[in-house]
Design brief:
Blueprint lengths: L16 E4 L12 E6 L2 E12 L4 E2 L18 E7 L8 E4 L9 E4 L4 H21 L13 E4 L13 H10 L7 H4 L8 E3 L2 E3 L17 E3 L6 E2 L2 H10 L8 E6 L2 E7 L4 H12 L5 E4 L5 E10 L2 E11 L6 E3 L1 E4 L8 H16 L4 E2 L5 H21 L6 H8 L3 H10 L3 E4 L2 E4 L3 H11 L28
Parallel strand pairs: 9-11, 18-20
Antiparallel strand pairs: 1-7, 2-3, 3-4, 3-5, 5-6, 8-15, 9-10, 11-12, 13-14, 14-16, 16-17, 17-19, 21-22
Helix pairs in contact: 7-9, 7-10
């Protein structure tokens, strides 16, 4: 998100508005900001879409349209709203009963053709040029994507006055993390997802085919990730689906956890379905139409019915920057259980097996940076406390397979770099040591390197010709 943008608003620019009051919900228009009841509180929200609640038909009504007539007085409306200064995942359809008519409403000002005719014409011309050069028309149904990658601003070393609390607050209020204004304005197109014994509410838009959007429940097979809009179709598929684990090679197993390696070129359909699913929970991702350059590592939990997907990460087959991870996701039903840390640790175990340092693909999103910084700090503090003797940054890099840049970033966030007697040294404060002691008492899931059965892949020129 740009430095001058407003959280949760497309483009980050302040639009001129007229503040007034309304007597009935039907007077609200798309783009206006009104107050709604939300969880016992009154919150301001921007109206992104309006529909007839009974017919479930969208009503494209903007500030330039004529006033609503009395013929619509009996129609009950629903409003798709984005709560101002709250994360975009909270966007939802709300009934008109939750509109607070006693609060003022900010309507966007009407644009006069004389004052803005030239700018409107240039915008239309720009849209025509964009659509002409695009492979997918603006009104066409998005096709199945193949990969998900980061596209946010690169991080730097923490500045003076770094505060973890402020970063967490920024994540809470940052709305969409995508750089594309068209993505910010998109509404969630799925209501519920059913995977195995779980029903999940999607957080963001995902370009599933149009015929699967806005269905009451989207049924997804948790083994092959095929999706169905009808319960009967899904049930028939489950009787025929022979998969009990992801379609790849099992390279790690300990207790009930396993990792499967999948080549995006050999299992295109599975990887495309995986990326579609992940887009429901990763708003800051950009979808690409080619999974061939990627390897996917699927973390599963095993029971008597099979291996159930927990999360995954992907990495490029050939990375000039030695990136060991391109995208990472833990499914919502398994979050806050330590599996994200397992995924990050496993990516570095693969780097150790390859004999080279690695780093996640840059730039990182805000949430990804926060997670990785915590992981780097925990590993480095544990190593420094238990290490006997002197150690340099390069030696830390060799032991952990972290890049020097990532190590310095983590140490700066801990305020552990000090200048003493003409040289820089690493000093852990009492606060950091006490935090490590509390962390070490937790029962965390860890990757056992001895259970990894994997040999680094060497790809031929024929297998890598998609990179040329």
């Amino acid at each position: 998100m740009g430095s001058g943008s407003r959280p949760g608003t497309p483009g980050g620019t302040k639009a001129e508005s007229t503040v007034t009051t309304v007597s009935k919900p039907s007077q609200l228009t798309i783009g206006c900001k009104a107050f709604f009841d939300k969880d016992g509180e009154i919150r301001q929200a921007e109206v992104l879409s309006i529909r007839d609640r009974a017919m479930r038909q969208n009503i494209q009504r903007t500030a330039e349209d004529a006033p609503v007539g009395s013929s619509e007085s009996k129609t009950e409306y629903e409003f798709y709203v984005h709560y101002v200064e709250f994360n975009k995942r909270l966007d939802e359809w709300v009934p008109e009963a939750r509109v607070r008519l006693d609060k003022p409403v900010a309507f966007p000002k009407k644009k006069t053709k004389g004052a803005h005719g030239g700018s409107q014409q240039s915008v239309r011309d720009k849209k025509r040029k964009t659509n002409a050069g695009s492979s997918v028309a603006s009104g066409a149904t998005p096709q199945t994507p193949d990969s998900v990658r980061h596209d946010d601003a690169a991080y730097t070393a923490p500045q003076e006055g770094f505060s973890k609390e402020k970063e967490i607050e920024k994540l809470r209020t940052s709305g969409s993390m995508t750089q594309s204004t068209s993505e910010v304005a998109r509404m969630k197109n799925l209501i519920l997802i059913e995977m195995g014994q779980f029903r999940i509410e999607p957080w963001y838009f995902s370009p599933y085919p149009q015929e699967f959007a806005y269905t009451p429940v989207l049924f997804i097979c948790e083994f092959c990730l095929c999706f169905y809009a009808n319960k009967m179709q899904y049930t028939r598929h489950r009787t025929k689906c022979a998969l009990q684990h992801p379609p790849g090679n099992e390279i790690y197993r300990k207790d009930d956890l396993s990792f499967f390696e999948i080549d995006g070129r050999r299992q295109r359909m599975y990887c495309r379905n995986l990326c579609l699913l992940s887009k429901c929970f990763l708003d800051h991702k950009t979808l690409f139409y080619d999974v061939d350059p990627f390897l996917f590592y699927i973390l599963t939990k095993r029971d008597e019915r099979g291996c159930h997907i927990i999360g995954y990460f992907s990495k490029e087959k050939e990375s000039a920057e030695n990136y060991n991870l391109a995208c990472i996701l833990t499914l919502p039903q398994y979050q806050r259980m330590g599996f994200g840390r397992v995924l990050m640790q496993f990516s570095y175990e693969l780097s150790k097996a390859e004999g080279k340092v690695g780093s996640p693909e840059k730039p990182l999103s805000d949430l990804g940076l926060l997670s990785y910084r915590t992981f780097w700090s925990e590993v480095l503090v544990d190593l420094l406390i238990n290490y006997d003797g002197e150690i340099s940054i390069d030696e830390l890099s060799q032991l952990t397979c972290f890049t020097v840049q990532d190590i310095m970033h983590a140490l700066f966030s801990l305020d552990a770099i000090r200048y003493y007697h003409g040289q820089h040294c690493i000093v852990l404060s009492q606060r950091v040591i006490e935090a490590h002691e509390r962390f070490s008492q937790k029962k965390l899931r860890k990757v056992d390197p001895t259970c990894l059965k994997w040999t680094p892949k060497v790809f031929t020129q024929a297998e890598l010709r998609y990179l040329q």
